[in-house]
Amino acid sequence: MKRCSHPGCSWQSIAPSGDAALEQFAEHLVESHSKTVDVDIPEGMVQIRLHEDDEWVTTTFEEAQKLHDWSQDE
Ligand SMILES: [Zn+2]
Question: Which tens digit of pLDDT belongs to each residue from 25-69?
Fold first, then answer.
């Protein structure tokens, strides 16, 4: 089961498979831990970070879903 890496966040995946869980995690990152304010972010782009101390990454939602590879070795 995949859990959110952000402190204080209780989200965890309910998907049966690892791939689906990571996809849900990516969506959760975009929905709950993205920011779209005060920076020039092109339409359709999001800013996410996988961990509280990470740099913000500006990316597309599709790319954001691939970023889960970074945190796969937990
Ligand atoms: Zn979270």
Answer: 888 887 888 765 545 666 677 777 777 787 877 888 777 777 666
> How many distinct structural domains can be found in the chain?
1
What's the 27 CA to ligand 1 centre distance in angstroms?
10
**Domain that residue 51 falls in:** 18-71
Taking the C-alpha atoms of residue 57 and residue 47, their distance in angstroms, rounded to an integer, is: 5
51 in any annotated domain: yes
What is the rounded distance in angstroms from the CA atom of residue 39 to the CA atom of residue 11? 27
Residues lying with their CB under 5 A of ligand 1, a single-atom ion: 4, 6, 9, 11, 32
Instruction: Give 4 Cα–ligand 1 centroid separation in angstroms.
Output: 5
Against a cut of 0.70, is the pTM above it? no
